[in-house]
Amino acid sequence: MENKTTSKHTTFYAIGLSYKKADAEMRGKFSLDQNAKEQVLTQAKDSGIESLLVISTCNRTEIYGYAEHPFQLIKLLTDNSNGSVEDFQKVAYVYKNTEAINHFFKVGTGLDSQILGDFEIISQVKNSFTESKKFGLTNSYLERLANAVIQASKRIKNETEISSGATSVSFASVQYIFRNIEDIDNKNILLFGIGKIGRNTCENLVKHTKDDNITLINRTRDKAEQIAGKFNLIVKDYADLQTEIQRADVLVVATGAQNPTVDKTILNLKKPLLILDLSVPRNVNPNVLENELVSLVHMDQLSQMTDETLENRKKYIPQAEAIIDEIQEEFITWTKARKFAPTINALKEKLNSIKDNELNFQRKKLSNFDEEQAEIISNRIIQKITSQFANHLKDDQTAVNESIEWIEKVFQLETLSNE
User: Fold this and answer.
1) Is the dihedral of CA 38, 44, 49, 54 positive or negative?
2) What is 169-305's CATH topology?
3) Helix 140-159 and helix 317-365: axis angle, to 10°?
C-alpha cells in the first residue's frame, strides 16, 4: 500500500541548536526531558510526519526528520519546550538533504561534541532511534542512516585514537578539581544529584581520590544508594543538604531539575567552597557568588578547557573524517538507488512486455524460430539498456527527479514511489 505522505514533496532536515551558538541558559530553554520527547513524537505522528529522530543532551537539542518545510520541525520543538521561535532564530541551524546527513554523522561520531571525541552521544542516537521506532516514526531511510552513523562511530572508536584520554565534561570537571583544590584526598566532596554527567564525574573522582570522603545526596535516596553501592560512598538524606554543603570543600551539582536547586540562601559557609554546576538548565543560581567564599564553575567553562589530550585528539580528525566520507558515500549511493529503483524495475517490466509481444509475433511468423536463443539475446539487450539508464541515474551530475520523470513519460511507466 502506498504511504499517505508520498503525494507530498518531503525533504530530510536537521534542525536544532548546540553549545556553539547557544549558551547554557538558552540550551536550557530548548531542553527536552523524556516526557517532552514523547510529546514531540506524538505530535509529529498526529501531524502526518513520516519519520523523526529527537536528540536532547546538555550540549544540544536537535530534530532530524522528513517534512514539507523545516518550520514543521521547528514548531514541534517550540511547542514542547520553553524556547520561542524568536529564540530559535537567534541561535539555531537548519540543514537539508546532504548537509543534514553530514551534520548527523559529525554529531553521532563526536566530531561536533563540545569535547572532541566524546562517544556518549552515540548511545543517545541509539535510544532516540528506538523511541522513534516505538512510535512508528522510522522509515527505511532513517533506519539505514542511523545504522550508518552507528557504524561510523564504532569504526572511528576502533580505528583512531580520537577518544583516547579525557572523554567528557565529567573528566574535565575532575581535572579542574585537581588543579584548583590542594590536598584533595583530605577534602570533602559532595555530589548533589545523579544525572549521567554527575555519575561519570563520581566514577572519575572515585578512581583518583579516596571514596570515603565523597558524599552523595539525591532527592530520591534509593537511587543514590544504588549508585553509592557501586563505589562505597556515603549517602545522606535530601534534608541534610544544607549541613553537608557546610562540610564540603567541593560541591558538584548534577540534578535534572528545570530550576536552580542551590542558591545563596542555603549557604552558611565557614570555609571556601568550589561549586561545579554540571546541569542543563543551570541548577546553581549565580547569586551564590555574592558569598565571598564561593567559586562557581559551569560545565560550559569546563568544556573550554584545552589540555594536551584534546590537542592530541585533533590529529585524528582527518582519519575520522575519511571514515565518515566512506560510509556517507555508501549511504548516499543507496539513497539514489532507492529513489530510482522503482523506475528501473518498471522500465525492465515494460521492456519485457515489448519483448514478449515481439517473440510471440516472430514465433508465429518464422518456421525455424529458435525460442531459447531469442530469449537469451533479448534478455541481454534488456539488461544492457536498463544498466545504461541506471548508470545515468547514478551519475553525480544527473538531476535524478527530472530524469525519472522523463523516463516515465517516454516509456509510459506507472511506478509506485518508495516511502
Assistant:
1) negative
2) Rossmann fold (3.40.50)
3) 140
Hey, what's the cell of 183? 590536598
Residue 217 Rama label (left phi>0; alpha psi -120 to 50; beta): beta
Q: Which amino acid is at 331?
A: F
Q: In this structure, which CATH number among 2.40.160.20, 3.40.50.1820, 3.30.460.30, 3.90.1150.10 belongs to the domain 4-165?
A: 3.30.460.30
DSSP 83: -
For residue range 268-321, list pLDDT tens digits in order.
Answer: 898 999 999 988 888 899 999 999 999 999 887 777 665 667 778 889 999 999
Q: What are the backbone dihedrals phi and psi of residue 277, each rounded to the nearest 5 degrees, phi first?
A: -100, 105
The three-class DSSP label of residue 388 is: helix
**CA atoms in the 13 A half-sphere facing the CB of 1:** 3
Instruction: Retrieve residue 267's grid coordinates.
Output: 549557604
Neighbours of 72 (CB within 10 A): 20
One-character DSSP codes across 289-307: GGSTTEEEEEHHHHHT---
**Burial (0-12, 13-18, 19+ Cβ within 10 Å), 360:** exposed
String of DSSP letters for 214-274: EEEE-SSHHHHHHHHHHHT-EEE-GGGHHHHHHH-SEEEE----SS-SB-GGG---SS-EE
Q: What percent of the chain has pLDDT over 90?
A: 49
Instruction: Give per-residue pLDDT as tens, 186-201.
Output: 889 999 988 777 777 7
The pTM of this model reads 0.63
- Would you name the residues annotated as active-site residues? 58
